[in-house]
Write a structure and sequence with these properties.
Number of domains of chain B: 2
Distance between the termini of chain B: 67 Å
Number of strands of chain B: 12
Order of helices and strands of chain B: HEEEHEHEHEEHEHEHEHEEHH
Helix content of chain A: over 70%
CATH class of the largest domain in chain B: Alpha Beta
CATH architecture of chain A: Orthogonal Bundle
Largest sheet of chain A: none
CATH architecture of the largest domain in chain B: 3-Layer(aba) Sandwich
Radius of gyration of chain A: 22 Å
Strand order of the largest sheet of chain B: 9-8-10-7-11
CATH superfamily of chain A: MetI-like
CATH topology of the largest domain in chain B: D-Maltodextrin-Binding Protein, domain 2
Strand content of chain A: under 5%
Largest interface: A-B, 22 and 24 residues
Number of strands of chain A: 0
Distance between the termini of chain A: 58 Å
CATH class of chain A: Mainly Alpha
Helix content of chain B: 40-55%
Oligomer: heterodimer
CATH topology of chain A: MetI-like fold
Amino acid sequence: MDFLNGTFFTELSFFKDNAFLIENMDLLVEGLWTTVTLLGISLVFGFVFAIFVALARLSKSALLSYPAFLFTSVIRGTPLLVQIYIYYYGLGILFSQMPEVRSSFLWPYLRDGYWYIAFALILSTAGYLGEVIRGGLLSVPKGEIETARAFGMSARKAFLRVRLPRTIYLLTPTLAGETVLLLKSTALASTIAVVDLLGAANRIRSMTFEVYKPLLLVAVIYLILTLVIEYVFKRIEKRIPVRA
Amino acid sequence: MKKILLTVIVSTSFAFTSMLALAADVVKVGIAAEPYPPLSSKNANGTWEGFEIDLLGKVCAEANLQCEIKDIAWDGIIPALLSKKIDLIFTSMSVTEERAKKVLFTTPYYNSLPVVIGLPDQNWEMNKKALKRKIIGVQTATVSSNYIKLKTGKFAEIREYSTQDEVNSDLLAGRIDFMVADGIPAMAFFADNKGSLQFYGDVEYDAVLGEGIAAAVRHEDTALAAKLNVAIEKLIRGEDYAELSIKHLGTNVAPK
């Protein structure tokens, strides 16, 4: 019962003493920007990478399909946080011990936690979406591809113009879900001193000792972002001309 | 038979109430869960050790309190106190105005200023020219972080970490150029890594650095604070304190 008469209730008197949120608005905006760019970068690059992973998985050559299988198994079979720590504390420290890396022009990027998070999220997206896209590619009716080929399209053209677009159409609802999951994964950025939305909330909490308000506020912002993502995908779904 | 039974019940209930009374006297002390040597850290057996831990033992003995250590994450330690998960904070917390609004501080039990440690061969000056493109690491919610944000926040990049441990490891990895941290743990860390780091001196005093390091209780627990104040006042003037301080830290850090 402690929390009922303790801080929890008093903190919930939501509409007083909120000046600190306005004072720290710049921090929140910075955090929001980091979260959104992380989402964008990992979605775009992860998606492209995922197509290649899916194709490799479907390849008849074991030289391609086996490494792709291994990749998706490892990425999907280990916690994302563990992967981030391996890149940041493992690879990152390794880089820092190599003088040639430390003096190279890449060092300003390689010392920044942001790019390790981006890297981890891209690989993770590629792993998860790769499997989804593989399933999508398999569910495109064979007849459609054969028809495209019969029209004289090369195998590549038939893939780019028929099979891949059809896959994406089929997968839009799944992609929406994966994007929302990805958004929530970006919150792990705050674990390696990157100021994303959650990182900004944590900073405000530690500066002001306000426990719940910053967290509740960013929870609402994440929720709004999720709704925006779902809305955008719904629009895409509606726009795609699907003939019954 | 009935009488015996009654006696048993009465005596057990007596025993029970006295146990309850005893339990009520236990003070739950919050120590930041992250290692902060040589002040407080866990050894390989998982038991706490360090200057503050030994001092805490002496303070509790002096004030006749039964203390029980609880590990709490640094950035949530004041909320933990306010929500009564712990009753006392004894973990190198500097007295600041902002914190004093939330908690009641005791008499300071040690004093030290932040120092600057960085990668070698740089120029440390708190101006735009010297700190351009430099990254300064600090532990979040410390007087060091308040200080550096106030002095250089407008032009230097300041990276905040939730534990001092992470600041240390990122400095060694070259991910940050400087760190500003409390002198005692920072100098201990520097002593272990003299080869790859450089000491850039301590910082000029400013009011944001607070008035020493003290224990903290809830505002309503004035009786507990009074007991602790008496114990701390007595200890910091004593031989035991000086001995303990020199054993762990090499100097006597008693507040003047």
